[in-house]
Amino acid sequence: MEKYQKLIFVCTGNTCRSPMAEAIYRNLEKVSERKVLSRGLVVLFPEPINPKAEVVLKKHDLEIMNHVSKGLKTSDIDDNTIILTMTESQKRKILELYPGVKDIYTIKEYAGEIGDVVDPYGGTLVEYEECYIELARLVKKTVYKLNEEE
Question: Among its keywords, does the record have Cell cycle (predicted)?
Answer without folding.
Answer: no
